[in-house]
Design a protein that fits this description.
The complex is a heterodimer of chains A (140) and B (287).
Chain A: H1 4-14, H2 19-32, E1 56-62, E2 68-74, H3 80-93, H4 98-102, H5 108-113, H6 119-139
Helix pairs in contact in A: 1-3, 2-3, 3-6
Chain B: E1 15-16, H1 18-23, E2 30-34, H2 41-44, E3 51-52, H3 70-79, E4 87-91, H4 93-107, E5 114-117, H5 120-126, H6 157-165, E6 169-172, H7 176-179, E7 203-205, H8 222-233, E8 240-244, H9 250-261, E9 266-269, H10 273-277
Parallel strand pairs in B: 1-5, 2-3, 2-4, 4-5, 6-7, 6-8, 8-9
Helix pairs in contact in B: 4-9
The chains are: A mainly alpha (140), B alpha/beta (287).
């Protein structure tokens, strides 16, 4: 089962079958992303997303109910795709049951961005999904 | 970095700086073209008046592994309001990697009136120059170009095989790990790998990004480029040279450097590159 909040994002994006409109929606999400300072989210080697050309870092913190808040840092002013995905993952996965987060498909990247994403870009973004899932697996 | 005209290039007119672009934004004889890897980047903001060429949608045949053909190219240039006389200025992300790739594809159709904006998109941004989200629209043109001609700038595998058998020189622009075969694909690009690792026999390793000033993303001066290629890799302007990478995009950057900045007259890009050679039954490989 896809975490309900993540599903809401996907449903919203499906409202834009036109590629240009979807790109605009994703850009809007990316522009909403607020990059945390190094104090708020330390950039550690363990938290660095592998394969992502933008410098992207992930961390998580536990909620009282045992779920996690997921946070990303994107240290690349041109990393608009990474920012958009970070915004989706932070809002879509935070508070979701850990087993649901672990079951999120890596193909989420294609669902969000479409198949026309280049190989390198898709794999970097997939790394962000995998790192969020890894955070969930560590918390179980 | 010094002025372009002071760097000793063989064809300095092939590069323009950001200031030149800023001064020609409203020049009807100039079309500024952004070409990126990131599909969101152009729409998130681009140089005012710039159009986009998307390498995945605009430059490739949609079915087979090949570039677009004449009809599709004429449709593309018509849509972008380009005539055969238009000066095209390409720029983009990743140190103009995709910009030079697009410029190389345009040359297959004989459109040689192209320039590259030195430093690419990131230099424009670092200089605090404005971006626009407005997608411009230009009157459609009728572009009656010549048929695609692969013979002058593109090399196919049978030609590379003959080149190797003759002891011809090649430049492998991939990472050292890909060159020596310890990695079968570029980091983060596993699906663009090959069944065998190594390099084409006789190739010399010069990773493409060595031609770039790491500070501002501009091309290195000619003396440093000559040291890199002529002294470092023993390739010279009058020789037949083949450049390659995985699928021919990184090597289009090196093709541009050798052909235009250093004046190599017989350099071709082997776009089949390692994804073809490293999967080709019986092809000779060195490690």
């Amino acid at each position: 089962m896809i975490p309900p909040k993540l599903q809401e994002f996907l449903d919203d994006l499906h409202l834009f079958p036109d590629r240009a409109e979807r790109i605009q929606a994703l850009i809007s999400l990316g522009e909403e992303f607020e990059n945390p300072s190094t104090t708020e989210l330390p950039r550690t080697p363990q938290g660095r997303v592998p394969g992502c050309e933008s410098e992207v870092f992930v961390s998580s913190s536990p909620r009282p109910d045992g779920t996690l808040d997921y946070r990303f840092a994107v240290d690349n002013p041109q990393g608009i795709s990474a920012m958009a995905l970070a915004r989706i993952l932070m809002a879509g996965l935070s508070g979701a049951p850990l087993d649901q987060v672990q079951e999120v498909s890596d193909d989420l990247v294609y669902t969000v961005f479409g198949r026309e994403l280049s190989m390198g870009k898709s794999l970097g973004l997939t790394g962000m999904v995998r790192m969020a899932k890894f955070e969930a697996s560590r918390a179980i | 970095m010094s002025n372009i005209e002071d760097r000793g290039y063989a064809n300095p007119e092939m590069l323009v700086d950001t200031e030149w672009v800023a001064e020609h934004l409203n020049d009807s004889n100039v079309r500024i073209i952004e070409s990126n890897e990131d599909p969101l980047l152009y729409s998130s903001g681009h140089i005012g008046g710039a159009v986009e060429v998307d390498w995945t949608r605009d430059l490739n045949d949609p079915i087979k592994r090949d570039y677009l053909h004449r009809d599709a190219f004429e449709a593309l240039t018509s849509r972008l309001g380009i005539s055969q006389e238009t000066t095209l200025v390409f720029y983009g992300d990743k140190n103009n990697w995709w910009a030079t790739y697009a410029a190389w594809v345009f040359q297959l159709f004989g459109h040689q009136n192209v320039r590259i904006m030195d430093g690419g998109r990131i230099k424009w941004l670092k200089e605090g120059r404005p971006l626009s989200k407005e997608v411009p629209s230009y009157p459609a043109t009728t572009y009656a170009g010549p048929p695609r001609d692969d013979s002058t700038v593109r090399s196919f595998r049978h030609e590379v095989m003959t080149h190797v058998q003759r002891g011809g020189k090649l430049i492998d622009v991939r990472s050292p790990e890909e060159f020596n075969g310890t990695r079968l694909h570029m980091e983060a690009y596993p699906n663009e790998g090959a069944l065998r690792g190594g390099h084409i026999p006789g190739a010399r390793s010069v990773p493409w990004a060595k031609a770039i000033d790491a500070e501002d993303g501009t091309f290195l001066p000619a003396d440093q480029l000559r040291d890199l290629y002529e002294n470092g890799a023993d390739v010279h302007p009058d020789e037949d040279i083949v450049v390659y990478c995985r699928i021919g995009e990184r090597s289009s950057h090196t093709w541009f450097v050798l052909k235009y900045l250093l004046g190599f007259t017989k350099v071709k890009n082997y776009d089949g590159s390692w994804t073809e050679w490293g999967n080709l039954v019986g092809a000779p490989i060195e490690k």
